[in-house]
Amino acid sequence: MESNIFANYRDWITSQKIPHGKKAVLLAGLELFSKNGYHGTPTADIAKKAGVSQATIFKYFKTKQDLLITIIKPIIENMVPNYRDQFLSGMNKYHNLEEWVNFVVRDRYKFLKDNSDAAIILLSEMMINQTVRDLFFEIFEKSVPVVKTTIVNKLESSNEVRDDLDLSGIIRTIVGQFIPYFFQQYLVPNSIEDEEHDLEQMVDLIMHAIAK
Asked: pTM to 2 decimals?
């Protein structure tokens, strides 16, 4: 498949110039792996969802694992660097800590929400699949220096962060708010009544935790 940068993974698959059957299998795999997990999704279910035979699946993918990696690899190689660069660029628009925290929470949450199927698969498989972990950390390690430098410079220039907190503590505080919230919305969607209020509350909680 083409490796052009994309913003929404489902739309990206749909736009690819590949055989209709292969595209249908990728979209079916994306949906079912995110809902039922890799091990909870037999290829028979993928074939039924895609409207193809199991033979068609194995025409394009050697194994179910090959299908999983074909789905995940573009997420890691294209989506992650693309959103990293957009995120770092967007940070420069904000000049105080509260504006920056607002941006981080809303931008990263929107990223997960817009690509929920892909995010669920990636986050869950990273915990149990060594091949997926290796793919992710290869890209992650390349991103660490520029991300760390940009965030540290932004926080130091604001001079609003508690002196006893290091970068890891700040990131854990922020991520610890919106990642569980994302899973709550994805797994129990009816439990969320006012998303905007919840995001504002997250920002308030983070500010109380990290601001001087």
From this structure: 0.71
